[in-house]
Design brief:
alpha/beta; about 35% helix; 10 strands; globular
Length: about 260
């Protein structure tokens, strides 16, 4: 473990966690976590986490179990904090409702897609919001055409590749015009060309994008990267500052696992 200690980042302005906003001044844009506590099965995941996420593209990195997925689910209301506040675009999440204006894309598209055709899947979110069926169909076809998928509306979902399914999931979320798009390892099962293609599409979106990813290369041009380590912020700065630190940590962690026979 001495090697791990050797690469532990020293506290500096470059890697200090972003300061928490004042309790009486919720941010009007983006996501804000204030002294958030959350436990699962009696085990603490977050114990006083504070983060203010307002940049347009933010990456989340960290080992499995570090809290990345939990953070995203707290941000859209799939999970509720045990204590503290989660604020989305200036509105504190309360009750059992999902966060308004927040779209969520799962790692596995089969966990998200529920309809047999592309058109039905994308139009569903619109009709659920009271849009007439004909208008929802028109909006769906326009959205598909804008993203190079004209003629996809009638395609059977089970005939699509994994990359095409993931694109459908992203478009189904975008159809509802969220201001914040959360993605939890969305490219984990995709080949490199598909990952690069979808990543380029995300870069062109006007929405705020917060993405958890083990593929560090996809985060190199993001505005900010937050490294979570056992539920706490280990580093929080630009990709050029955070990603090398996390790569070094991962190399040492991998060596330790190999020596212990756990890898």
């Amino acid at each position: 473990m001495k090697l791990f200690e050797a690469i532990r980042p020293k506290r500096s302005a470059a890697v200090q966690p972003a300061p928490a906003p004042a309790a009486d001044a919720p941010t009007a844009r983006g996501l804000c976590f204030r002294n958030v506590g959350f436990a699962r099965d009696g085990q603490s995941v977050f114990d006083g986490l504070s983060l203010d996420l307002s940049q347009r593209r933010i990456g989340l990195v960290g080992d499995n179990g570090s809290g990345k997925s939990t953070l995203l689910r707290l941000a859209n209301g799939l999970l509720r904090a045990g204590r503290g506040d989660v604020v989305v675009n200036g509105v504190r999440l309360e009750g059992a409702a999902l966060a308004a204006g927040v779209g969520f894309v799962f790692q596995n598209p089969d966990h998200q897609i529920i309809f047999p055709t592309v058109g039905e899947e994308i139009a569903f979110g619109l009709t659920e919001r009271g849009v007439a069926a004909a208008e929802a169909q028109r909006a769906t076809e326009e959205l598909l055409a804008r993203h190079g998928c004209a003629g996809w509306s009638g395609r059977a979902v089970h005939e699509l590749s994994e990359g095409q399914k993931q694109l459908v999931c992203i478009l189904a979320v975008l159809a509802t015009e969220p201001s914040v798009l959360l993605l939890d390892e969305p490219f984990a099962s995709l080949d490199l060309p598909t990952r690069l293609s979808l990543s380029a599409r995300l870069a062109q979106l006007p929405q705020q994008v917060v993405m958890a990813s083990h593929d560090l290369d996809l985060l190199h041009d993001f505005d900010r990267v937050v490294w979570l380590d056992r539920g706490a912020v280990r580093a929080d700065a630009s990709p050029a500052e955070v990603l090398p630190l996390y790569r070094a940590h991962a190399a040492v962690r991998g060596a330790v696992l190999l020596e212990s026979g756990a890898a």
